[in-house]
Design brief:
alpha/beta, 20 helices
Length: 571
């Protein structure tokens, strides 16, 4: 006894270790080891699943699948039912049950095509299989094929009239079919009403000498559009979106609902009252009611000086061409009428053309508008998107817009492609070696249109700005990562994340070449350097701009990047 007192007693194993030991026992394994084929015990247990007749094997897999289905582990149950079907049982009852049960799993997994295939096969085995008809009807309802779902229910009720589940499903399919047909009728009625409305609008435009100018798909669509005044039951009064341009500061105001019988003075007095604070962009404090003049221009570039008491309907009448002359009138671009507002005095004289063509009895004049059209085209080339700067265009932006207009006028083969293109901003960026680069930001919807002419446009602009490189980047918008306190419920799009925007900026910078590889180097101090490898076939045409690409990317994202062309192996 004394000798045994010094011997330590065995300590019980922890519960985790005891459970871990079960994983080495083939009967209790949760997953097969890599060398399962070499384990005799595992191979013996696996062979047991396939011992017996095809009917016994299929029945065994069906029971295992039922256990997993009860635990709502539908994918595992689906696998067992499939193995049972693959066993090719000779008993049609077992095969029918396996097919119906597999259809139930696919129904839960929303694999509706597989549900219909299994149910069709089950019906071919047993034409009076209620479960197959029932599950087919559920799948067809999910696919919004209500007529076929009703047909399935009717066929089942012919031999199983008391089946409550099928009766309920038929009622559901009938209600959904009626709702779908009602929505389709409503949609068709809306289309018909919209077509009638557009026809009335076209007639109203013609009556008012308004010429609709089609807008290319690349230009952002206006959320407002002309409509009939809801307060006028006769539909003789229109409401237009009207854009007031202030060319002195290259900014504008949009009146979304301008009733055509309202005089211009009513809007000007509300927008620029004498005793109210002036707009931030009005640096000279000249835009005050009583000190302003309004001009409109027609399709044939005639300029109309509009009296304050005139209404929009009066201006439309005055824009009509004389008898024997080509059609003329106000232009409706993107559903909007445009007018120019200027302060009286020196600024008006700068914009007012020297030659006066004719005087109209209503008291306003019609002048030659070539100079106006020329200057306003610069204004229209700069389109401020939602995330673009709200300041007035600077010298760089005006110079870029003017260069694009000059190229449009001097290159007839590019005129149709360049005319609808607009820029949202332009900035100068310092490049190593004391050089500069011009970054031209373009609206995202117009990026593809820019890509069609970008190579030629870049060459021409770099000739114009001989000491600067030119690159184009889409004006994209990033959204913050949503938090618990965020009011926005909509999921943030992948394209609005910081990572996605930075990747797209890289692609925009190097267009038309492609990025063939990337490598990130992390220094000991934690700083990162991104290496971007470009397609070597464009090395000769882009190598001189690699420093500009790096400087622009660092300015836009704050990240260091080096652009390289892969070294070609020598033969």
């Amino acid at each position: 006894m004394a000798a045994q007192e010094g011997v330590p007693l065995p300590q019980p194993l922890p519960a985790d270790e005891k459970l871990a030991e079960f994983d080495s026992v083939p009967l209790f394994m949760k997953s097969l080891p890599e060398d399962a084929a070499d384990d005799v015990a595992i191979s013996a247990l696996q062979s047991l699943a396939y011992e017996g007749t095809p009917d016994e094997i299929a029945q065994n897999f069906k029971e295992q699948g039922n256990d997993y289905f009860k635990g709502k582990r539908y994918r595992e149950a689906l696998g067992f039912y499939t193995q049972g079907v693959d066993a090719k049982p000779t008993d049609n009852t077992v095969l029918e049950a396996l097919l119906c049960n597999r259809a139930a799993c696919n129904l839960e997994l929303q694999n509706y095509g597989s549900v219909l295939r299994d149910c069709s096969r089950a019906i071919s085995v047993n034409p009076k299989c209620s479960k197959a008809y029932y599950r087919s009807a559920l799948a067809l309802i999910a696919l919004e094929r209500y007529d076929e779902a009703l047909d399935c229910c009717d066929r089942c009720l012919q031999f199983d009239k008391e089946n409550k589940a099928v009766q309920t499903t038929r009622e559901k399919a009938a209600k959904l079919k009626e709702a779908k047909e009602r929505k389709e009728r409503e949609r068709q009625e809306r289309i018909r009403q919209e077509q009638l409305k557009q026809g009335r609008l076209r007639a109203a435009y013609k009556e008012r000498n308004i010429i609709v100018v089609p807008v290319p798909d690349t230009v952002a669509q206006n959320p407002y559009e002309p409509d009939f005044d809801p307060e006028d039951p006769t539909n003789n009064t229109l409401i237009f979106p009207v854009l007031f341009l202030y060319p002195q500061y290259a900014t504008s105001d949009l009146i979304s609902h301008y009733q055509e019988d309202t005089p211009f003075s009513a809007h000007l007095s509300a927008m620029f009252p004498p005793n109210a604070p002036q707009p931030e962009w009005d640096k000279k404090r000249e835009y005050v009611d009583g000190n302003l003049v309004v001009y409109g221009f027609t399709r044939r570039q005639r300029l109309l000086k509009i009296g304050k008491k005139m209404t929009l309907r009066d201006v439309c009448k005055a824009a009509k061409a004389k008898e024997g002359e080509p059609q003329d009138g106000l232009e409706l671009k993107d559903g909007t009428l445009t007018f120019i507002v200027l302060p009286k005095g020196e600024e008006e004289q700068k914009w007012r053309p020297q030659k006066i063509c004719e005087t109209v009895p209503n008291g306003h004049t019609i002048d030659d508008g070539d100079r106006l059209g020329f200057k306003m085209s610069v204004q229209h080339k700069i389109f401020r998107t939602a995330n673009a700067p709200r300041t007035a265009p600077d010298e760089t932006e005006i110079a870029v817009a003017q260069a694009m207009i000059d190229l449009e006028n001097s290159a007839p083969e590019l005129k149709s492609e360049l005319r609808p293109l607009q820029i949202s901003a332009a900035r100068e960026v310092d490049v190593r070696g004391g050089k500069k680069a011009i970054v031209i930001f373009v609206p995202v919807p117009q990026l593809k249109a820019f890509h069609k002419v970008q190579q030629r446009l870049t060459r021409e602009l770099e000739k114009k700005f001989s000491d600067r490189h030119v690159v184009f980047v889409a004006q994209r918008r990033m959204l913050r990562k949503p938090t618990r306190t965020s009011r926005v419920k909509q999921k943030r799009p992948r394209s609005r994340t910081l990572t996605s925007v930075h990747e797209k900026i890289l692609e925009d910078l190097v267009f038309p070449t492609e990025i063939v590889g990337k490598r990130t180097r992390v220094a000991v101090d934690g700083s990162k350097l991104l290496k971007v490898f470009l397609d070597s076939k464009d090395a000769t045409s882009l190598e001189y701009k690699l420093d500009s690409f790096s400087s622009v990317y660092r300015r836009l994202t704050g990240k260091d990047v080096v652009f390289e062309f892969p070294v070609q192996a020598q033969d």
